[in-house]
Amino acid sequence: MAQGVTPYYLPEDRIPLPPADAKVTTTACDYCIVGCGYKVYTWPLGREGGPRASQNALRAEFPAKVNSGKWISPNMHNLVMVEGRPHHVLVVPDGDARVVNVGGNHSIRGGVLAQKCFNPNKPSQERLLYPMMRVRGTLQPVSWDTALDVMAGVSRHVLDRHGEHAWAMKTYSYQYFENTYAISKLAFGAIGTPAYAPHDKPGPGPDTPGLDWAGIDAFSASYEDWGMADVIFFSGVDPYETKSVLFTSWIMHGQNPDKKLIFALPRKTMGVAWGEQRGGLFLQVIPGTDTVLHLALIRIILENGWEDRDFIDRWVANSWEIDAGMGRGTRNTPWQWFTTWGRYGIDFAGYRKWILGYRWAELDTAARLTGVPAASIRQAAEMLARPRPDGSRPRTSFMLEKGNYWCNNLGNTTSYAALGLVCGAGNRPGRVISRGGGHQRGWMGGAGYPRGLSPEKYPGRRKKEIDLDRWVAEGNVRFAWVIGTTWLQAMAASQELMDVFHRLTRQSPHQIASTRPAAAIESLTRRADSGGMVVVHQDIYPVDPIGTQLADLVLPAATWGEEDFTRCNGERRLRLYAQFNDPPGEARPDWQIIAGFARKMGFEGFDWKDSNEIFEEAARFGRGGVLNYHPLVVKAKQEGRRAHDLLRAYGTEGIQTPIRMVGGKLVGTKRLHDSTLQLGTPEGPTTHPKWLTAFGTHSGKAVLLRSYWEDFQDFYEAVKPTGDELWVTNGRINETWQSGYDDFRRPYIMARWPSMFVEMHPDDASARGIESGDLVAVENDRVLVQTGGFQGVEEKELTFTELRRAGHIKTTTASFTAVAVVSDAVRRGVVWALMLWPGSPANSVVPQVPDPVTNRARFKLGKGRVTKLGESPHKRSFTTMSLKPRPIV
Amino acid sequence: MSPHEHSAERPCLSRRAFLLSGGTAVTVTLLDGPLNRAFGQGAALKRASYPARRIGRISQLAVDRPVPFQYPWKDAYSANMLVKLGVPAGGGVGPARDVVAFSTLCTHMGGPLAGQYRGQHKVVGPCPLHLTTFDLTKHGMVVSGQATETLAQVVLEARGDEIWATGVMGLIYGYHSNLAGRA
Questions:
Q1: pTM of the model
Q2: First vs last Cα of chain A: how many Å apart?
Q3: Is the sign of the CA dihedral A590, A592, A597, A601 positive or negative?
Q4: A887 neighbourhood in chain B, CB within 8 Å
Q5: Beta bridge partners of A810
Q6: With an 8 Å Cβ cutoff, are A8 and B170 in contact?
Q7: Confidence of residue B101 (pLDDT cuts 50, 70, 90)
Q8: How would you label B9-34 residue by residue, b for 16+ Cβ within 10 Å and e otherwise?
Q9: B127 in contact with A at a CB cutoff of 8 Å?
Q10: CA of B96, closest CA in chain A: separation in Å?
Q11: Catalytic site includes residue B108
């Protein structure tokens, strides 16, 4: 736990070098979307290599040269068990890498991967070692058999008595194909439940629907594209803070190191400062207003005729292509919302006419709403789209992330896609529209989400995916299996959700009082029948509160480095993440736990011997998709090899999906929608979907979607700060981005970030008597929470206004504490809070009212009052928590 | 439990440092005075094998004017800066506890930090390679960036007006051991 780690750090002044015969394994980083390549060196204790190239397994001379990618820092070393014997391990960025982290570049997170490995003498000793059952309130070790028997017994009862809607799963979406395939095969196939949500949202469905519905795959770009661009517009993301190596290897360098960067964010971060210094632009938006910023940019571009007409004529759908069944989807999908109704999709001429007459797209309106000076907006439009004197156009690319799509999901993503399209981006080298990404791409569906069974429905007869949090809060879930996520802190109005969980679990009179499986099952089924909920938490660490306080069963998972796994990074690069050390205790990989449970339930098709068998089986289900690696499995079979082993041979370079076979060889795909890609006749197992060379619609043309501020305005007015309240938005920091769960066990990182923190503007801080290093309380006494409202019948029934009128919006309170960092990096009137600090969840002050069309959360739109509690110990410490401003250039 | 209490109650840290030193003689030295009692107690340094070298005089240092020097050896990797911060700092010596010294090779990938000192904030950086910045008041802690170790800090002693370098805390970029082959 965060509180348990030594909050200062004692650096070491040597590392053991691997002897020349040390075992070398390749892998990629466990953390962020970039997915840098790493080499792992393991050798038994008692020997060390030497500093000459012939004396060590890196084949490197020490001292290592500057920027050689061959230096090893002490945090790259640990001691682990390999087949029961203690070994040294070094986890080192691949200095020979020619892709992703070229030349051994790395982030602070990946660079300390070795500290993740289980070592009983280090904080990673906190790993879960045995299955545990909460007997009379205390978690006690039990056998795997007991744990799975109890789960199966309760599950059978819940499915029989309460139906599949009452049997829920909340899991990561990213932690390797082998695991997610097993999870989805169980949840959607064998059980058939619609009560499922990934770790970062209330239910399944696209994060960036505006891109998807325009026909743009959210991960269509390659890292090379970001390197080639002349101009990049970053919306709600600074890839220096999140996606470090994408920034430091590809954006700072790449084919065009002179590119100009435009950022739309409420807070200035290091990448922004670096970009500004090189002729870029910082549009410091008020949270939630990106849609009007995008509309104003588009309008300026169209008013001046700067749009890419050749591209639009060729690649943007006309009204026939949108309306006459040539849209992207079939009937009865969310797609129809945007097409048949005629409200959103429109051809270019219609879009132009609409936006030139739309008052929320006026420059002065946008400047007032966004807080960005009109001159800056105009300058941004010029940089994005104005043709050069010779008529040529800048290669402009567009990257968005959660600051964009966790505010006004529908409006921000549709307007962002439209902005990119009028600039001619989306389907050419250096001209891309893509997410930057969060976690890696580790979802491989073994069965599709049963949308038809979902309890949620748009007005009309269209179903939509579930909002699992609301479904739980309404008492509809009786058994919940949580895998690899905190669930509660990660979701909106998190303290309200914690109250719900406590009420449904620990406050039930029906608690396990005996370790006998039959008795435990009886107690838990009584709880389920009386309206309560049984919770299983499966993870690598004890997680508070879902595992430590709430779960009836806690299951230990094996993770990265403890099993052969596969997945793709942000440019769809597939690699093998090889096993190199033993899982601790009785921990098992998630797929094995799923399979064990499924067999107890009597389900067929869960008899895998190893993770490679799942990888091979799953290939069939990914064939039509962007992560298609089926040709690799076919090729492996032709060669009489295991597919994992063939992929292993590709090392840290891997191969970009979708994989094709050309001339008998496997060929990767650099970018999607690539109008420059020449495809021959599809060979062998190769498929050539239209979106390889065109947009992802039936017509192959991209769709312009109108974005109405009015769709969002009623909600926005209701969540805006008033009086002495401030916006309390949230985000991530480079040092703990996508690695927080391990960072709490790394003294090096904990010395830097020992506490939850908020950044405040000096004016807001001084008005409240707050200085850097002070401990503050953030309180919101009007946290909006939606209750019910699952099914719409009348046209506007699910809008915020109508939900509130019908009594579906309630108000609760929330608060958290944090250390203040006073800095003019953040906008006046805006407090920026670190997201996902488990003990002080910033999401508690965030409304739990999802976007009525897309069901996506508005995590970035918290607010609250900030008051000083006193001084934190870090204010005057020399060993913990630097309080210096971060974007210094 | 606060960090101060924590370290004060854990004498095992000095044993740990002893073990890490490979059993050679250890001289326990407090890094700084009462301002940072906690860290000083914990951070026993294995200084026995580091050379002691006079590197400057306190009276000749001006605030925010770093002075380069080499330590512990004479090769290109032993490049450091001595700087009077003008504010007290972890490991600082002199009457104001504000004189510190750090390696000028970034502990990410060895980028050159000489010339990157920022007096306004008492930090060094951003490194020209990947933009890491280090807090010189807090033992070279990363403020922002990619380094996987604190910036190697040269342990200083004030002997009257003289400033002596007597050890290094943290592995210097490039080396696999600060002391290998030098004993």
A1: 0.94
A2: 34
A3: positive
A4: 144
A5: A785
A6: no
A7: very high
A8: eeeebbeebbebbeeeebeeebbbee
A9: no
A10: 15
A11: yes
Q: CA–CA separation, A171 vs A196, rounded Å? A: 8
Say whether B110 and A17 touch across the interface (CB within 8 A).
Answer: no
The nearest CA of chain B is from the CA of A250 a distance in Å of 11
Residues in chain A with CB shorter than 8 Å from the CB of B118 are: 888
Contact A288, A407 (CB under 8 A): yes
* Across A206-210, A686-690, A777-781, B178-182, least confident range: B178-182
CA-closest candidate to residue A72, choices A118, A41, A36, A27: A41
Would you call B171 an interface residue with chain A, using a CB distance cutoff of 8 Å? yes
What pLDDT score does A340 carry?
53
Please give the angle made by the CA atoms of A395, A399 and A401, to the nearest 5 degrees. 175
Q: With CB atoms and an 8 Å threshold, state whether B126 touches A69.
A: no
Task: Encode pLDDT of A523-579 as tens digits.
Answer: 999 999 999 999 999 999 999 999 999 999 999 999 999 999 999 999 999 999 999
Q: Which letter, b or e, does each residue of A816-833 get, where b requires 16 or more Cβ atoms within 10 Å of its Cβ?
A: bbbbbbbbebbbebbbbb
Catalytic pick among B4, B6, B108, B176: B108
Cβ distance of B176 and A63 shorter than 8 Å:
yes
What the block records as the tokens of B152 is: 């190697």
Domains in chain B (CATH in brackets) are 1-49 (no CATH), 51-169 (2.102.10.10)
Tokens at A468, concatenated:
């699992």
Whole-number Å distance between alpha carbons of A362 and A621: 47
B27 in reach of chain A (CB within 8 A): no
Look up residue A155 and give its two tokens. 């599950």
With beta carbons under 8 A apart, name residues in chain A contacting B87.
Answer: none
List the structure tokens of A573.
Answer: 């690069």
CB A563, CB A579: distance < 8 Å = yes
- Nearest CA-CA partner of A441 in A35, A97, A26, A36: A35
Residue A349: CB partners within 8 Å, gap ≥ 6? none
Beta sheet of B99-103, edge-to-edge order: B53-57, B162-169, B153-159, B99-103, B79-84, B67-70
ipTM of the complex: 0.96
Q: What is the CA radius of gyration of chain A?
A: 26
Report the C-alpha gap between A284 and A827 in whole angstroms: 7
Is residue A306 within 8 Å of A385, Cβ to Cβ?
A: yes
For residue A63, the chain B residues in CB contact (below 8 A) are 75, 77, 174-176
- Facing B141 at nearest CB: one of A72, A751, A886: A751
Cα distance between residue A776 and residue A871, in whole Å: 9
Domains and CATH numbers, chain A: 2-126 (2.60.40.4210), 132-206+442-565+575-601 (3.40.50.740), 622-690 (no CATH), 710-875 (2.40.40.20)
Q: Does B111 reach chain A within 8 Å, measured CB to CB? A: yes
For residue A400, which phi and psi values (nearest 5 degrees)? Answer: -130, 155
Chain B residues in contact with A751 by the CB 8 A cut-off are 141
Give φ, ψ of A887 to 5 degrees.
Answer: -85, 75
- A-B contacts (CB, under 8 Å): 194
pLDDT at A35 exceeding the cut of 80: yes
B152/A11 Cβ within 8 A: yes
Q: Select from A62, A66, A268, A735 the residue whose CB has the most chain B CBs within 10 Å, as the one to mutate to test that interface.
A: A66
Contacts of A884 (CB under 8 A, 6+ apart): B121, B122, B123, B133, B135, B143
Q: Which two tokens stand for residue A665?
A: 């060889």
Report the alpha-carbon distance of residue A596 to residue A380 in Å, rounded. 56
Mean pLDDT within B85-100 = 97
Query: Phi-psi region for residue A142, left (φ > 0), alpha (ψ -120 to 50) or beta?
Result: beta
